Amino acid sequence: xxxxxxxxxxxxxxxxxxxxxxxxxxxxxxxxxxxxxxxxxxxxxxxxxxxxxxxxxxxxxxxxxxxxxxxxxxxxxxxxxxxxxxxxxxxxxxxxxxxxxxxxxxxxxxxxxxxxxxxxxxxxxxxxxxxxxxxxxxxxxxxxxxxxxxxxxxxxxxxxxxxxxxxxxxxxxxxxxxxxxxxxxxxxxxxxxxxxxxxxxxxxxxxxxxxxxxxxxxxxxxxxxxxxxxxxxxxxx
Length: 237
Hints:
By secondary structure, the protein is an all-beta fold. It is 0% helix and 57% strand.
């Protein structure tokens, strides 16, 4: 049994089953109390989804319930993309730290471990996992399918948003297949919206063919994006 997230009175039951004809089933009740000498909140830190170069800071609190016997000797991180600094504003027995992700330009998931080294307790190290995901700032639908239904193709809307929250404007739209009619709708919140619809509902020659929408924006990192699209006619059974 793990007591990692348990504090205070504890009661558990264990059922023992056997081939004893008199007492084939016995229930054992275990009672006790979990006394936590050290509390770390949170026990894991996820910095979330960030854009390239973005930084973010999270608070970490360490509480020593026996500060006269237990001492924090060091708090470190095993990855240079993270830092940890004491905030020096905790009450007696409580220490607060600012754990910061310093930013990175490489896309993908980054993991690290924060080590809390203690004296006067076993085990002497508490580990706190750190994770963050670096993504492109500009977000939009990566492909479009127009599926024919009742003789027509429903229109599709593509939302352009950013992790940074900065609005992006659609400047130009090109269609390599010449099959769609596109228009830029009114902004919804911080999102730019592109509406695309099949110009001729009788179009039936591109079931397996992909074309592309080439969209020019004023985004500083992705000024031009391509979205493949295809017209799909369900097979009749």
